[in-house]
Design brief:
The structure holds two protein chains of two kinds. Chain A is an all-alpha fold. Chain A has two helices and no strands. The longest helix of chain A is centred in the N-terminal third of the chain and has 25 residues. The N and C termini of chain A lie far apart (58 Å). Chain B is globular, with a radius of gyration of 33 Å. In chain B, the strands form six sheets. Chain B has a seven-stranded mixed sheet with strand order 16-28-27-26-17-24-25, with helices on both faces. Chain B has a six-stranded antiparallel sheet with strand order 8-7-9-15-10-13, with no helix packed on it. The chains are: A mainly alpha, B alpha+beta. At the A-B interface, helix 1 and helix 2 of A face helix 2, helix 4, helix 5, strand 5 and helix 7 of B.
């Protein structure tokens, strides 16, 4: 049963990793604007010929 | 580049494909779309050539009209100077710079779509990200390939000119406190989950000595950050209130948290139990989530109020030679507006022309008008005194700023508010009683079963939630204000809803409220007016927004503008001014007769067929116009509905020629008074109040400002103008007046909803505390119940308010 110590240790470490990821994402401003992404999601890119702008990974090409 | 002009097939007014404004009789055409000006065509071509027409597919008329830049210097040249760049940019390097622009013209999804495609429009721009709520774009570009001024110029050409403030940096938002809340939620959630995991053996009743102690200590360690970090705001708030000698709602919560943590820590250290750390962390987690949710809903409500329910005021906008009305909400920086005597200036701007004397009593309390010279700044909230002026608006209209001015103490009326008083009374005694009960429970359980005391006391402290008090009032009234705003009735503040609900008498002004400045014919009788006379008269009339002036002006037709000096408008009497060295006067007969001679042999009594506007020019009375009254449509039905529940009255400054019509419109026994001066109106309202009535006065703010101020609720009716008197509590768009009955019913319903939610909250508290005191409620369940009850209050008030609105067809 001594493997429990290892397991507990690992799980706490993983949980800590997730916590720090969450804190980092809040710090990086991901929760600052919760309105525009919801509008951006619904915009379609209807120009198949144009190259997608750099960094804008929310656009989809419509058929 | 622009398409050749072609005559349109049918002579009707089309709307510009780009910006939605009316096209001139010969609109510019391009590929079967009509445009109103060169600027719009240019933008369309720009987008069309780059295959960005999807901009138009997302919304109709998504663009805004811009004047193509004339003259040599672009206003954005200053952006290339190093110091300006330093101030504005958030990051600078050889190959990459970033900054944030504030662009007030962002208003729809097309704007987002187009602006985020900026890299396609302008090579050198790497990325453009829009923040819709704050109307900002975050730009990153390569300074070697494109200059900032070129980017700004392109944005301006598209209709999205960045708003440059002198200070440069955008305001640092309150995201700091929001972030902190998220951090606290994260920490609490982390601890909660892990503590529960480690507490599993205990839930399942497994006894492993070795692990039990280890897990106990681990729980303690995991709970520490929750105590030290996530609880901070509650501790701070409780401490502050105790220092002020009061007990606010956070005191029992903080107490509960401390009790729970201490007891659990003691149990672990003394090996006497497993503690309640899972409840502790869970408590914090749910409380903080509840807080975050409330903050979001609150933000959504105030965002709505700022951007969606608009003050139903309009300004006159000058485009080239033409002038037309425009809703205040659509006013963009750069537009030229015309402000007449008594009109409110809705946004900051620069005086272009005219003799400006601005009354800033609304803003500063000073009623002495301030003289402003051309080129100087004029601030929002001022009112023009005298002849009309032209202002170039350079900031957006801030609804919140105007609303704040309006709510300033000088304009508030000392009225009692039943519901707020109730809320305050209950709130004060609530926490005292709760602490008393908690102490009683603690005493009892210490004697009966000491081991459970901490748990039970905490449960009692946590489960009692005065949420209804804190939430139902602001939420319900917030919703009501929003719904009414959408329907054309803009309230000064939440307290007005209550006043509306408590009103039992409605007093109407006649001119401008029950009647409108319609298109009825105006008959002239007297000496024939020469063309010159008509021009002079028109130049005088255009200075005033009195309904009679506007009707007359419409009849006279467009006339060349002339400068009027010494313009004066006497409420209820008339207007006068000097053009050149001629005195021109229009208005009541006695008023005109004081300044001009003539018609002394004409019979004294005024006509019974309509309103008279006598005209005197250059010392001689020329004659009069007769304007028949035109009552608003749908009035009889609205008045009938109101008459069943309210006492109605009409007071008018006019003569009694309309007595018959009004008697027919109003229920029998209603008071109708004529020939009332502004003081008479005020006294009438006062006498009603002496008799115990609660009066709602509906007027147009012109010569009943005093009466509006005196009444319990003053409602000014706005039609095509920025007429506004700060003594009023509500502004109604003229078209919404017929639904006054529905508005009043709805307000009454909302008060009932608030009382219901108080009752429900009381029931919840009684049940919850009963369970907790008798030991049947674990702190964890209490912790879940508390935000659940907040949520249920919010849900209840929201749903019932919208239901009530639906019933009134609002």
């Amino acid at each position: 049963m001594s493997v429990m110590f290892l397991l507990i240790g690992c799980s706490i470490l993983i949980a800590l990793a997730f916590l720090s990821l969450f804190l980092w994402s809040v710090n990086a401003g991901q929760y600052e604007d919760t309105c525009t992404p919801s509008m951006r999601m619904l915009l379609e890119d209807e120009r198949p010929a144009a190259e997608p702008p750099a960094g804008d990974d929310n656009s989809h090409s419509a058929a | 580049m622009p398409a050749p002009l072609q005559p349109p097939p049918v002579a009707e007014v089309t709307r510009c494909f780009h910006c939605g404004n009316d096209c001139p009789p010969q609109p510019l055409l391009a590929e079967s779309h009509s445009f109103c000006c060169e600027g719009c065509v240019a933008v369309w071509h720009l987008l069309h050539d780059l295959r960005l027409d999807h901009y138009y597919a997302l919304n109709t008329h998504p663009g805004t009209r811009t004047e193509p830049a004339e003259g040599a210097a672009s206003p954005f040249v200053c952006l290339d100077e190093p110091e300006t760049c330093d101030r504005l940019c958030s990051y600078r390097s050889e190959s990459l710079s970033t900054l944030t622009f504030h662009i007030p013209a962002i208003h729809c999804s097309s704007c987002i779509w187009l602006l985020e495609k900026l890299p396609a429009l302008q090579p050198g721009v790497n990325r453009c990200e829009v923040n819709f709520l704050r109307r900002e774009v975050h730009l990153s570009w390569d300074p070697r390939r494109v200059k900032l001024s070129a980017i700004a110029g392109l944005l301006a050409r598209l209709g999205y000119a960045p708003h440059l403030t002198l200070s440069g940096a955008p305001e640092k938002p309150r995201s700091r406190s929001n972030r902190r809340l998220w951090y606290q939620v994260g920490v609490a959630g982390f601890s909660f989950g892990n503590i529960m995991l480690l507490s599993f053996p205990e839930y399942l009743g497994l006894e492993e000595r070795q692990f039990a102690t280890l897990f106990g200590w681990l729980n303690l360690v995991l709970a520490l950050p929750v105590l030290l970090f996530s609880c901070q705001d509650y501790f701070k708030s409780a401490w502050q209130s105790l220092r002020n000698g009061q007990i606010n709602m956070d005191v029992p919560l903080a107490l509960g948290m401390i009790v729970l943590f201490s007891r659990s820590a003691w149990e672990i250290v003394s090996h006497s139990g497993a503690g309640y750390f899972d409840s502790f962390a869970g408590l914090l987690f749910f409380l903080l989530i509840g807080k975050a949710f409330q903050a979001r809903t609150w933000d959504a409500l105030s965002f709505d109020r700022d951007y969606k329910s608009y003050l139903p005021l309009s300004v006159t906008v000058k485009e080239g030679r033409e002038e037309k009305p425009l809703a205040v909400a659509q006013l963009r920086p750069g537009t030229v507006i015309v402000t007449r005597h008594g009109e409110l200036i809705p946004a900051d701007g620069v005086l272009l022309s005219g003799n400006a004397r601005i009354d800033y009593s609304f803003v500063t309390g000073e009623s002495d008008p301030v003289k402003v010279a051309a080129g100087e700044k004029i601030f929002a909230g001022g009112r023009q005194v005298g002849s009309r002026i032209e202002i170039a608006v350079d900031r957006e209209v801030s609804q919140s700023y105007l609303a704040r001015l309006w709510n300033h103490e000088t304009f508030s009326k000392p009225r009692e508010s039943e519901v707020t008083a109730l809320a305050n009374r209950v709130g004060r005694s609530f926490t005292h009683r709760l602490l008393f009960i908690a102490a009683g429970a603690a005493a009892f359980w210490l004697w009966y079963d000491p081991a459970r005391t901490a748990e039970i006391v905490t449960a009692v402290l946590i489960v009692a939630c005065p949420c209804a008090l804190a939430l139902s009032l602001p939420f319900t009234l917030g919703h009501v204000m929003r719904i009414l705003g959408r329907n054309g009735l803009y309230l000064k503040g939440p307290a007005t809803v209550e006043q509306l609900a408590m009103a039992d008498t409605v007093v109407f002004d006649k001119t401008g409220t029950l009647t409108q400045a319609g298109d009825a014919e105006a008959q002239w009788s007297g000496e024939a007016l020469s063309e010159q006379d008509v021009k002079h008269l028109a130049a005088l009339l255009i200075q005033s927004w009195h309904p009679l002036s506007r009707r007359l002006l419409r009849k006279l037709g467009p006339q060349p503008a002339m400068e009027v000096t010494d313009f004066e408008e006497v409420p209820g009497q008339g207007i006068t001014g000097r053009i050149g060295n001629l005195t021109v006067t229009a208005g009541r007969r006695s008023f005109v007769a004081a300044l001009h001679d003539g018609f002394s042999d004409h019979p004294e009594e005024a006509s019974r067929d309509g309103a008279e506007v006598w005209v005197g020019i250059n010392g001689k009375m020329k004659g009069r116009y007769l304007l028949r009254d035109q009552f608003r449509k749908n009035l009889s039905a609205a008045l009938e509905r109101l008459g069943t529940q309210y006492r109605l009255a009409v007071i008018s400054g006019d003569n009694d020629r309309e007595r018959g019509t009004l008697t027919a419109l109003l229920p029998p026994g209603s008071e109708i008074r004529f020939r009332q001066s502004p003081e008479d109106k005020l006294n009438f309202i006062h006498s009603l109040q002496q008799r115990g009535c609660r009066v709602l006065m509906v007027g147009d703010g012109l010569n009943d400002a005093g009466a509006l101020r005196q009444s319990d609720v003053g409602m000014s009716v706005s039609e095509d103008s920025a007429s506004f008197t700060p003594g009023s509590d509500a502004i109604a768009a003229a078209s919404s007046l017929e639904r006054l009955g529905a508005f009043l019913q709805f307000s009454r319903q909302s008060l009932r909803i608030i009382r219901w939610s108080f009752l429900l909250s009381l029931l919840y508290n009684l049940t919850g505390v009963a369970f907790a005191v008798t030991g049947h409620l674990s702190p964890l369940v209490a912790a879940v119940l508390m935000p659940a009850s907040s949520l249920s209050v919010i849900l209840f008030t929201t749903l019932t308010t919208h239901l009530a609105a639906r019933r009134q067809r609002l």
